[in-house]
Specification:
Layout: H1 6-9, E1 41-43, E2 60-63, E3 76-84, E4 101-111, E5 115-122, E6 128-134, E7 141-144, E8 157-160, E9 163-164, E10 172-174, E11 178-186, E12 191-204
Parallel strand pairs: 6-7
Antiparallel strand pairs: 1-12, 2-12, 3-11, 4-9, 4-10, 4-12, 5-6, 5-11, 7-8
């Protein structure tokens, strides 16, 4: 939703002279039926650069413009945070413990325009779990449009690639295991209300399993 100053932008109180766009969207959903081996997923407790707890975040933040005289190659804004991967000790109906194990199933990056990269690290080993980067050919997981057709609008961010893991290769952690998020934005201009977060799902693991 975009707000304008109607006193300055409109000739009439109801802006009746302004054109109205009618927008259509199409979604395609793919699904498969659950079976005896299907495991329940839950939202993770992280990861957002505005948060330091279990899902307690502001979500939006500003990107401040670089100071005058900054070399062009350093026109970046960097934000990081460290959070436990899954909730524990907060939900009265299940009360998972910090030592309980979860598998990381899904991590979808969420950035706004001018986003250069978003990375997810195992904070204790510094191993990269998932990362997307802006590249000239859109091969790095952050896509920017280059044309005029729907889905390829020039200059707009048009796509972000998620990371997914199956039951055999999903990273397994204790619920209190720390992950780190690092977001990098182009800071040539000031941006308000951007987001830098991962939309993540985990699945409770067999608590008798051993974390390797």
């Amino acid at each position: 939703m975009f707000l304008i100053d109607t006193d300055k932008e409109c000739k009439t109180p109801d802006c009746a002279e302004k054109l109205v766009d009618e927008v259509y969207m199409k979604f395609t959903f793919h699904y498969e039926d659950a079976n005896d081996n299907t495991r329940q997923m839950e939202g993770a407790a992280c990861c957002d650069v505005t948060s330091s707890g279990q899902g307690d975040e502001n979500i939006e933040h500003d990107v401040t413009k670089c100071a005058e005289g900054t070399p062009p190659e350093e026109f970046v804004f960097i934000a990081e945070s460290v959070q436990p991967i899954a909730e524990f000790g907060r939900r009265p109906w299940s009360k998972p413990k910090a030592s309980d194990l979860v598998d990381l199933v899904f991590a979808a990056p969420h950035l706004h325009w001018a986003g250069n990269s978003l990375e997810l690290f195992d904070h204790e080993t510094n191993k990269t779990l998932c990362a997307v980067h802006r590249t000239p050919d859109n091969s790095g997981g952050i896509m920017y449009g280059t044309g005029s057709e729907a889905g390829n609008e020039n200059g707009y961010m048009t796509g972000l690639t998620p990371c997914t893991w199956g039951g055999g290769d999903a990273p397994r952690f204790r619920r209190d295991h720390k992950l780190r998020t690092r977001a990098v934005y182009n800071a040539t201009t000031y941006h308000t209300g951007v987001m830098s977060l991962w939309l993540m799902q985990v699945a409770a693991a067999d608590q008798s399993a051993v974390v390797v």
